[in-house]
Write a structure and sequence with these properties.
The protein is α+β, with helices and mostly antiparallel strands. About 35% of the residues lie in helices and about 25% in strands. It has a five-stranded mixed sheet, covered by helices on one side. It binds zinc ion. Zinc ion binds next to loops.
């Protein structure tokens, strides 16, 4: 017997809740801002759970920059706006839900 999704009551293999959730309720925000000492950082808001940790790790590796995760927000050292957006799109987030 297959697992039943607790949200829609359908078997997990035909349930689309997670996909729908990604498309409709996820709002990502990526922007650059100035932090201490007038240095630019790139901020990613809206990633959840695993993707927050994994995303931070991957982005730091890909962009070869420092960064941290705090209160559900990824902060990357430097201006990486464009590349961060490209990465999120590759993860499967529609470009239109990514606010900048
Ligand atoms: Zn479901």
């Amino acid at each position: 017997m297959s697992e039943i999704c607790s949200t829609c009551g359908l078997p997990k293999e035909i349930c689309a809740c997670q996909t729908i959730e990604k498309e409709t309720t996820t709002k990502l925000k990526v922007y650059t801002t100035k932090k201490r000492f007038n240095k630019l950082v790139t901020v990613v808001e809206g990633l959840q759970g695993n993707e927050l940790e994994t995303g931070a790790k991957e982005l730091k590796r890909k962009l070869a920059c420092g960064g941290s995760v705090k209160d559900g927000v990824i902060v990357l050292q430097g201006d990486h706006l464009q590349k961060t957006i490209e990465y999120l799109v590759k993860l499967g987030y529609p470009r239109e839900i990514i606010k900048t």
